[in-house]
Amino acid sequence: MLLTSLAPTPVFTRIAEASRARVTTVTDGGALPGALATAVAHIDERRRHALIEVRIRP
Predict the structure, then answer these.
(1) Maximal C-alpha separation, the chain
(2) Does residue 2 lie within any of the structural domains?
(3) Tens-digit pLDDT profile for residues 38-54
C-alpha cells in the first residue's frame, strides 16, 4: 500500500526557480557539457543552486 503519491508529477524546474536556482533544460546531448559548465560557474560565482533538466524524450 502506497502512503504517498507524486501524481500529478511536480514541476521540479518551477520549484527550483522559486528557490532562486538557475534552471536549464537540455534536450540535445551535445548541449549537456555547456549546460554543466554554466551551472558550475553559476554555483561558483553566485553561491546558489543550479538544476539541469535533461529530457531524454521530447
Answers:
(1) 45
(2) no
(3) 999 999 999 999 999 99
Q: Which residues, 6 or more positions from 40, have their beta carbon under 8 angstroms from its beta carbon?
A: 50
Structural domain tally of the chain? 1
Q: Model confidence over 4-30: pLDDT tens digits?
A: 776 788 899 999 999 999 999 999 999
25 located within any domain: yes
Picking from 27, 45, 26, 46, the residue whose alpha carbon sits closest to that of residue 36 is 26
Is 1 contained in some domain?
A: no
Cell readout for 26 is 537540455
Domain limits for position 23: 12-54
Whether 4 is in a domain gets the answer no
Q: Do residues 17 and 23 touch, judged by C-beta distance below 8 A?
A: yes
